[in-house]
User: Fold this.
Amino acid sequence: MRIRAGVLFLAGAAAASLLAGCGKGTPAAQIGFVGPLTGDQAATGLDMLHGAQLALEQARAAGEILPGYRVELVALDDSHSPAQAVSAAKRLTSNTDVIAVVGHLNSSCTKPASAVYSEARMLHVNPVSSNPEISRQGFDNFFRVCPTDDLQGPAGARFALTRLKAKRIFVIDDVTTYGRGLANEFIRSAQVQGAEIVGHEGITQGEKDFIPLLTKVKVLGPDLIYFAGMYPEAALLIKQRFELQIPAKFLGGDGLFEPTLINLAGPQAADSEVYITTLGGDIRGLPTARDFVRDFEAKYGHLGAYSSYAYEATRLVLEAVRRAGKKDRAAVLNAMKQMKSYSGILGIHTFDSRGDTTIRTIGIYTIKDGKFQFVEAVGG
Amino acid sequence: MKKTAIFLLLFLIPFLDPNSYHIEILATAALYALLALGLNIIVGFAGLLHLGYAAFFAIGAYTYALLNLRLGCPFWLGLPLGMGVAGVGGVLLGLPAVRVRGDYLAIVTLGFGEIVRIVVTNLEPWTGGPNGLLGIAHPVLGGFNFGVDSRPYYWLLLVLVGGIAWVCARLRRSRIGLAWAALREDELAARTLGINGTRLKLLALGLGGGIAGLAGAVFAAKQGTITPDSFDFILSVMILAMVILGGLGSVRGVILGAVVLSVLPELLQGFSTYRMLLFGIGMIGLMRLRPQGLLGISQIRRELQRAAS
Amino acid sequence: MTPGDFFFQQLLNGLTIGSIYALIALGYTMVYGIIQLINFAHGEIFMVGAYLGLAAILLIGKVHPGLNPTAGLLLTLLAAAVGGGFLGLVIERVAYRPLRQGPKLSVLITAIGVSFFLQNAVMLVFGAQDRYVPPLLQVHRWQIGSVTVTLMQVIILAVSIGLMAGLQRIVYRTGLGRAMRATAQDPLAARLMGISVDRVIAATFCIGSALAGVGGVLFGLTYSTINFHDGYLIGLKAFTAAVLGGIGNIPGAMLGGLLLGFLEAFGAAYLSTQWKNVVAFTVLVLVLLLRPRGLLGERVAERA
Assistant:
C-alpha cells in the first residue's frame, strides 16, 4: 500500500519530466544550455540563462532559423557540481534533437563536460569559464567567447603597477578553480614586473566574516588588495575593508563586475578606490551592444555580468545552425569551423586554433557614485 | 537464481537502451550504490554514525589520479591501490574516532571529512589545489580504451556493486556481522561477552573506507579531471541519506536508496529552478511513507532469530 | 598596532562571530537535549529568520519610516522570533513527529528534505541574488587604544548572553522546563506522569527555532548581506559549537560558540584563513578525545 504510493510518486515525477520535454507539432531542433540553476551559484546561472533565452527569442522573431524545424532551448542545471555537469552533458549528447550546446559557468564544471561534448562531436560554445586550461585539452569542437585568465591576470597586474602604483600587494582568492587560477596568473605577472606579494590567502565561498583576515592585512599595510573571486564575498571584503579604514586600494577580477556588488557593499564603501578588471570592454559603451542592453533590461530588469556572454555564445551557436541549414551536429560544427569571423555585440570574433576568441580586450572599471565607471581598456 | 537473473538483465540494459544519458544515470547510480554499500558497513552493520565518508572517496580518487599522473600507473593497478590507501585511511582516522560514541562520533568524522577536503585543497603543489588534476587516464582493457563512453563504466561498476553486495550479504551473516550487530545494539553487553569492540569498529571503518576508495578511483578515471569541490560535506550527507532511505543494514535496500536518490534529481531536471524544492518534498514524503527505509525490515529481530537458531 | 592590540582586536573579532554561533548553537543543543535529535534543518531556520528580518525592516521602512531605531530593532527581532518559532512548529509537525516512533536516523532524511525545501523556497521567493540588509541602527564605534569596538558587537553579545540566561531559566525554573527535563530523561514515564510529551517537544522546537530566527536577524544586521545559502555554513559551524561545548548543555553551547569564534579568528590571524577551519576541527577532535562529551557535557551513563 505504502510502497505503491512511493512508486506512484516516482512515476509521477518521471511522467512530469517527460511532459516537460514535450514540444509542439513542428519537429524540434534543440540547443542545450547548462549552468547552475539551483545551489550557491544560481543567481549568476539564471542571469546567463536569460541571456540565452533572449538570443533565441530574437532570432526566432527575425525569421526561420532552420527550415522545417522549431529551434528550442533546453535548459539544464549542473548545480555547480562537476559530476552533475557530466550527466547534464550526457543528457544533451544522448538526445539526437540537440545539435549544439552553450555551456557551463564554472570552470570546474566546463572542464569534465567538454570531454563529453567532444566525444559526441557536438559544437560547444562556452560563455565565461575563463580558466585557460580548458581550451588546452585540444578539443576542436570547443569555442569560447570570453578572454581567459592568463590575459586577465597580467592585465590586472599591469594596471596595478603602472596606474595604481602598487608596490606591496596582498592577494586573496576564493579557493575555486576560477579564483585560484586567476590569482596565480596575477601573482606571476605582478612579481615579474617587480611588485612584492606580501601575502596570499584563500577564503571560503559563502563566508561573511573577513574581519580577522583584514585586521591582519591592515597590520601588514599593503598598498593594494587584489581579490580573485565572486561578487558576494568581494562586496563584504570591500565593505569590511572600508569599516576597518584600511587605506589600501582594491582591485578584483571579472567575478566582481556585477551591479549587485555596489548595492551589497554600500555606496560609500564601494566608492573607495575599488577597481575591477572585466572580460571585454565596456558593455554599456559598446555601440554594438546598445540594443541588447535595452532589450535585456526591458525584459528581465537586471543585467548580470555574464548575461551578455551567454547571449553572445547563444547567438554564435544560432548563426552556426543557420549556416548549416540542417539538423545535423556535424554540419553545425562544420559551419562553425568555416566561420571566418563573427560580428557580435562584444565585437568581431575570430577564433584561434584552441577555439578562444581573439577579442582579448580586458576592460578596467572603477566605482563612482554607485555606478561602474569605465577607466580604460587593455589589449585588443 | 533470481539475483543472477536480475544482474544479467541489468548487464544487458546498454544493449536494450542505447541512450547514453540513461546509461550515464545508471552508471552514476551504480557509483552511489557502491558508496552506499561501503557506508552501510560502517553505519548499518557496525552502527557508527559517520558524517565524513566523502573523505575516503576523495582519497581513492586522488590516489589513482596522482599515481597515474606522476608514475603512469595504469587504472587496474590504481584501483586496488586507491582502495588500499583509503582503507588504511579509514583505519587511521578511525583510531582516535572509535574512542568517542554515538553522535559525538558523527561530529568527529565530520571534522575529519572537512580536514581531508581542506588539506587536499591546500596542498596545491601535489593535488593541483582548487584547480584539481587534469588528464587522468581512462581505463584500458585489452587495448580497448573506456574513454568517456558511459557503458564500460556502467558494466565495471555493476560488477563491483554485485561483488561488494555479495560480500556484504555474506559478511552480515558471518560471525563478524553478528558481532557488529551485537555491538550496535548494546555495546556494553557485547563487550562483556568478550567482543573486541575497537578492533571490530576499525574493521568496519577500514572496509567501508576501502570501498569508498574503490569508487573514488573509478570516479577519477571516469571524469578524467577531479577537483576538491566534488568531495564536500553534502556528498557525505547524501550517501548517508541513501543508506537510511534504503533501510539501514539492508544490502538490497541501500542499493535501492542510492538509485532513488541519484535518479530522482535527474527526473526532476525538467522543472529547472523548482527541481531541488521538489526533491526536498520528495525526501520528506518518501520517509513519511516508509519510516524504516524502503526495504528496511525489522533487521534486528531477524538477526537475533538467526543467532538463536 | 602593537602585537598586544592585535591580539585583543582579534579576540574581539572572534567574540562577534562566536556570539552568533552561540546563539544558533543554543537551538541545536536544546532540541538535542530533549529528544536526542540533531536538527539538521536548524541552519535553514536561521536563514529564513534572516530573510524575515529583512522583510520586517523593509515593511517598517514603508509603513512607519520615522520609527525609533531601537523600537524598529525590537520589532524586527520579534517578527523573526515569531516567524522562526512558527516555522519550527510546522517542521516538527510535518517532518519529525510522524517519524518519532521510527528508527532514530530516519529523521535525518526528512531534515535534509526540509533543508532543500527551505533553501529553494527562499530562493524562489526572494531571488537567488544576495540581498542587502539596510542597517537599523547608526554605526557606533568606541576606540580603546587602537582596538575598535562596534555597537553591533555589543548588541550581539548582550542578546546571546541574555537569551542563554533566559533559556537556562525556562529549563530550570518553570513548569515547562520541568516537563522538558522529564521528557529528556524518560518520555514514557513523563507521559505516564500526565505530561503531554508531544506538546513539550513542540514547545522545544518552537523556542529553539525562535532563537535561530533572532540569530538570523542579528547576522543580517552585522554583515549586511544575506543569501538563501547562508544556513548551510553557519548551521554546520553552530552544530560544531554545540558539540564542542557539550551538546544538550545550554552554557556549553555558549562556550562552544565563543571558543569556535576565537579559534577561527586566531587561526586566520596567526596562521591563514585557508587553514582556520582545519584548526577549528582539529581542536574539536582533540577536545572530544579528551572529553568525549564536550567541554561542559556531563558524564551520564549510557542509556540502555
Summary: Residues 16-290 of chain C form a domain with the ABC transporter involved in vitamin B12 uptake, BtuC fold (CATH 1.10.3470). Chain C touches chain A at residues 1, 6, 9-10, 13-14, 16-17, 120, 123, 127-130, 132, 139, 148, 219, 223-225, 227, 229-230, 232-233, 264-266, 268-269, 272-274, 276-277 (CB under 8 Å).
